[in-house]
């Protein structure tokens, strides 16, 4: 177990180094010059040259790379080309927003997904199952951006139930914070709820038709007890794994959601930085997201080894 | 969520789709869009205090008058950083921190500016002529300054007493007053400059109705009322939040939901629907800038490098470019593409400004027959192919497609190449294009709308155009102080431009700002800057 973890850690470090090279080259492969992009239509050639020198864009690429990595290791990602704000501060301000959104969305996904999954499994072949399956088909096929725009138009503009944009930290004002995050989190969570629903349903169907359940029922165990004690508990194992794997996807989905709801998260930061060719910000953000993804995967793997023995036990009973 | 609970959502969608299909009723017929610059608060009953939220269409860059180069920075700066001069609704320059227009010596080499005294910066330090001189000198001292060229050939800046600043010139430079009505004229606190240095933009301190509080990058900028401001009795709001919302649809949705009270740069596609909302009001001002098609006539090694011969008829033969200009049905294009919210443009000088003249307002007529004839004379194949690079935004692509259809009649086969904005800026700089479509936001002084893009060797002459006659005209115009004579010179320049057509001017947008009727006192002029400093929430109406 210790060796396995060590191996995984080493793998992760290597991935991170490779990612940093890819990011560095990728950013430079973007057409367009950051100094020009910053100056925009009003560019003054002398000022552009000064900015270029300030950014160290005159150095050869390998020198630029090692400088970038060297600074990054000490947590210094430089300053935004556009606004002059330290990139570390920008990430510090945006990452928590995205994490709150992702966690909230995941809660939504698990709540709706597990509930719909249980309903679909228990009421197999009857209308509640069609409803639940219909929902997941809908949520999976409809693009998040469309659903988001629709939600803004209908729930915010027409009915004025939710704010159309904005963000309040739930740590400052818990209720308002949650209120502002609700719509984006539900929109972002729906697609993932669909995935959770499908997994929950198939896993529960499998469990509920298993021999040991039939035995349990024959011994006179109640329906509710069977559903919750056997079915749900088994499917939760599956859900845990999926939640971990989907967190990465949530960050990608957050880019779109944050844009629609003008949420000041890392997704919006990424997108805006790409459009303005803000090299230091793009590099840092992509690196941080990659690192986050790697850490999540590590955690999932670790959790898996914890969960694994139990799975093997239930596998043997089959 | 069950299928049943989806019903209202789907019904809502149906309603939205249907309303979107209803033909838009124009509040006014073609050409009658009336300028509305907004009105000062005046005698209206207002509510004191409150937080006004503005949806900003783009993120400002550094909040530093010396190094900033983004148009949107001016939106925020206008509330925290007053200028020596400002413009009014007729695009005339008026004093703001100065007390009168500058006095120019007969030889044009000395410009004396009388400035206010007895007022203070937001940090409590006194505002006077030495402070103004310190601020202006910074534009020359800072390496990353974007202001140097705007201020012209200055040799020295003096403050002989507390209330006068004197600029000494090597050559007369007429555009200076206009420059001081822009970022160069924003006066920074010398104490803050000394303390922050290059980082002034992180905590800008000036004279203004509001003072800077904080900035959350890519998200918002907060300012609060400055009690030290000299005209504080006319400042009504407590705070203003500038929230960055780059997507036009999202700005429109937020206006309608009431989450924001003002938004700039509304698309002509959205403005009709917003104009019909009784809770919203459209402010509109004509632009000082223009949209255009630039032809590459000599930019081979990148802008700023000596121009070279390009062996292509489009670059060499002015007849082809004239044909292109004649094949453009400018009026029909703006009417159809922009629901007639924008105006056709044929020159870099905006009409109804102090430097416009009959010569600069003249427009070549739409004449596809003559266009084909010119192409025949030039001996090129018809249809003549042109590759046109365009930014991949909705409005620009729509215009490009309509243009493609229009010039086809005149014998051109335009191939549209959509390019992302930052990339197009790069293409323009490198000179890797035959023709490209981009715009210029415009400046008060016509020099910044002409010489910058057309004089030989200028850093903004992306097409690599070179004409000594035009160079001489434009130089003469900057050295002439009398506005009437300058207008005549720009008229001549426009005539020459319309023969050579290195840039074909297509349309002039209107600055469309939408505000909630719950607020009053918001103003915007031709420089596109939305002024919120003296705005207030309306009192009588419920909030």
From TrEMBL, chain A:
Q: Where in the cell is it found?
A: Cell membrane
Q: State the family it belongs to.
A: Belongs to the binding-protein-dependent transport system permease family.
PANTHER family attached to this UniProt entry: DIPEPTIDE TRANSPORT SYSTEM PERMEASE PROTEIN DPPB-RELATED
TM region(s), chain numbering: 12-30, 101-123, 135-157, 177-196, 236-261, 281-307
Q: What Pfam families is this protein classified in?
A: BPD_transp_1, BPD_transp_1_N
One GO molecular-function annotation for this sequence? dipeptide transmembrane transporter activity
Topological category with respect to the lipid bilayer:
Multi-pass membrane protein
Species of origin reads: Amycolatopsis carbonis
Instruction: Give the ABC transmembrane type-1 domain ranges.
Output: 95-300
> PROSITE patterns annotated for this entry?
ABC_TM1
Q: Could you give one GO CC term from the UniProt record? A: plasma membrane
Q: What is its main location?
A: membrane
The protein in question is named ABC transporter permease
Q: Which UniProt keywords apply?
A: Cell membrane, Membrane, Transmembrane, Transmembrane helix, Transport
TrEMBL record, chain B:
Tell me which PANTHER family the record gives. Answer: D,D-DIPEPTIDE-BINDING PERIPLASMIC PROTEIN DDPA-RELATED (PTHR30290:SF38), PERIPLASMIC BINDING COMPONENT OF ABC TRANSPORTER (PTHR30290)
Q: Which UniProt keywords apply?
A: Signal
The terms describing its cellular component in GO are: ATP-binding cassette (ABC) transporter complex; periplasmic space
* InterPro entries recorded: Peptide/Ni-bd, SBP_5, SBP_5_dom
What is the annotated signal peptide range for this record? 1-20
Q: Would you tell me the protein name for this molecule?
A: ABC transporter substrate-binding protein
| Biological process terms in GO annotation | peptide transport
Concerning Pfam families, the annotation shows: SBP_bac_5
Q: Which organism is it from?
A: Amycolatopsis carbonis
Chain ranges of the Solute-binding protein family domain: 92-459
Q: Which residues cross the membrane?
A: none
């Amino acid at each position: 177990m210790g060796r396995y973890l060590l191996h995984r850690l080493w793998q992760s470090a290597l991935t991170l180094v490779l990612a940093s090279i890819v990011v560095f080259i990728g950013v430079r492969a973007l057409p367009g010059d950051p100094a020009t992009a910053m100056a925009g239509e009003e560019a003054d050639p002398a000022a552009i040259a000064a900015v270029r020198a300030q950014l160290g864009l005159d150095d050869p690429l390998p020198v630029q790379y090692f400088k970038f990595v060297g600074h990054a290791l000490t947590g210094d990602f430089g300053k935004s080309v556009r606004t002059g704000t330290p990139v570390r501060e920008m990430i510090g301000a945006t990452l928590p927003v995205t994490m709150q959104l992702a966690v909230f969305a995941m809660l939504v996904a698990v709540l709706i997904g597990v509930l719909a999954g249980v309903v679909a499994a228990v009421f197999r072949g009857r209308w509640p199952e069609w409803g639940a399956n219909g929902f997941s088909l809908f949520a999976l096929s409809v693009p998040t951006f469309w659903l988001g725009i629709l939600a803004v138009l209908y729930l915010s503009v027409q009915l004025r139930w939710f704010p159309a944009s904005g963000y309040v930290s739930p740590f400052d004002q818990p209720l308002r914070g949650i209120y502002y995050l609700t719509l984006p989190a539900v929109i972002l969570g729906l697609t993932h709820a669909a995935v959770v629903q499908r997994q929950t349903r198939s896993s529960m169907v499998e469990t509920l038709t298993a021999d040991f359940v039939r035995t349990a029922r024959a011994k006179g165990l109640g329906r509710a007890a069977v559903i919750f004690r056997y079915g749900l508990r088994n499917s939760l194992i599956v859900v845990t794994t999926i939640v971990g794997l989907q967190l990465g996807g949530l960050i990608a989905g957050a880019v779109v959601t944050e844009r629609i709801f003008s949420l000041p998260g890392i997704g919006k930061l990424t997108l805006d930085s790409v459009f303005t060719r803000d090299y230091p910000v793009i590099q840092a953000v992509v690196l941080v997201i990659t690192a986050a993804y790697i850490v999540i995967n590590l955690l999932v793997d670790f959790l898996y080894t914890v969960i694994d023995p139990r799975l093997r036990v239930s596998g043997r009973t089959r | 969520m069950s299928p049943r609970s989806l019903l209202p959502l789907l019904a809502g969608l149906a309603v939205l789709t249907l309303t979107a299909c209803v033909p838009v009723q124009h509040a006014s017929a073609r050409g009658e869009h009336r300028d509305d610059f907004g009105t000062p608060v005046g005698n209206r009953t207002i509510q004191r205090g409150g937080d006004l939220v503005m949806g900003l269409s783009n993120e400002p860059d550094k909040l530093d008058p010396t190094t900033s180069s983004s148009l949107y920075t001016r939106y925020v700066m206008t509330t925290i950083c007053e200028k020596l001069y400002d413009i009014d609704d007729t695009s005339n320059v008026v004093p703001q921190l100065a007390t009168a227009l500058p006095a120019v010596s007969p030889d044009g080499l000395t410009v004396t500016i009388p400035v206010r005294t007895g007022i203070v910066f937001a940090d409590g330090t006194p505002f006077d002529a030495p402070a103004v001189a310190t601020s202006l000198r910074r534009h020359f001292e800072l390496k990353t300054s974007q202001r140097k060229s705007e201020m012209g050939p200055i040799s020295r800046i003096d403050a002989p007493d507390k209330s006068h600043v004197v600029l000494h010139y090597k050559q007369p430079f007429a555009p200076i007053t206009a420059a001081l009505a822009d970022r160069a004229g924003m006066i920074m606190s010398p104490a803050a400059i000394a303390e922050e240095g290059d980082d002034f933009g992180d905590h800008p301190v000036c004279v203004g109705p509001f003072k800077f509080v904080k900035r959350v990058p890519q998200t918002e900028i907060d300012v609060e009322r400055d009690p030290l401001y000299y005209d504080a009795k006319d400042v009504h709001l407590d705070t203003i939040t500038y929230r960055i919302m780059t997507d036009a649809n999202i700005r429109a949705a937020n206006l309608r939901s009431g989450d924001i009270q003002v938004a700039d740069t509304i698309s002509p596609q959205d403005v009709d629907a917003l104009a019909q909302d009784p809770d919203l009001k459209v402010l509109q001002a004509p632009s000082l800038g223009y949209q255009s098609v630039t032809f590459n006539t000599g930019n081979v090694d990148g802008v700023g490098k000596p121009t070279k011969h390009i062996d292509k008829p489009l670059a060499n033969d002015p007849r082809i470019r004239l044909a292109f200009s004649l094949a453009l049905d400018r009026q029909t294009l703006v009417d159809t593409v922009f629901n007639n919210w924008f105006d056709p443009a044929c020159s870099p000088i905006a009409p109804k400004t102090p430097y416009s003249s009959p010569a600069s307002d003249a427009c070549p007529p739409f004449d596809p027959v003559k266009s084909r004839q010119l192409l025949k004379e030039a001996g090129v194949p018809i249809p003549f192919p042109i590759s046109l690079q365009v930014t991949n935004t909705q409005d620009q692509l729509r215009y490009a497609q309509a243009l493609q259809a229009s010039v086809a009649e005149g014998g051109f086969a335009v191939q549209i190449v959509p390019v992302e904005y930052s990339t197009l800026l790069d293409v323009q700089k490198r000179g890797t294009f035959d023709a490209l479509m981009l715009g210029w936001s415009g400046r008060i002084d016509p020099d910044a709308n002409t010489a910058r893009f057309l004089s030989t060797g200028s850093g903004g002459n992306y097409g690599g155009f070179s004409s000594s006659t035009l160079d001489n005209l434009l130089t003469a115009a900057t050295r002439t102080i009398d506005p009437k004579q300058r207008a005549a010179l720009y008229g001549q320049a426009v005539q020459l431009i319309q023969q050579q057509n290195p840039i074909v001017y297509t349309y002039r947008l209107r600055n469309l700002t939408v505000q909630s009727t719950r607020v009053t006192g918001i103003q915007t002029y031709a420089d596109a800057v939305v002024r919120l400093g003296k705005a207030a929430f309306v009192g009588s109406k419920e909030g």
